[in-house]
Amino acid sequence: MNKFKIGTVILVTLCAALIPVLSGTEALAQSKFPSRPINFMIPYPPGGFFDALSRPMVDYASKALGQTVVPVNKPGGSGSLALSLLKSMAPDGYNLAVGSNSMFSLPPQQEMNFDPAKDFTYICRTVDSPLGIVVKADSPWQSLKDLVDYARANPGKIKYGTANPRGALGFNMIIIGKKEGIQWEMVPFAGGQLVVNALLGGHIQAIIQGPEWVPHVDAGTLRLLALAGERRTKRFPNTPCTGELGYDSTSAPLMVCGPAGMPKEIVNLLDATFKASLSDPATLKIIEQLVLIDVYMDHAQTTKWALEQTDYYKKFIKEIGLAKQ
Question: How far apart are CA 240 and CA 226, in angstroms?
Answer without folding.
Answer: 5
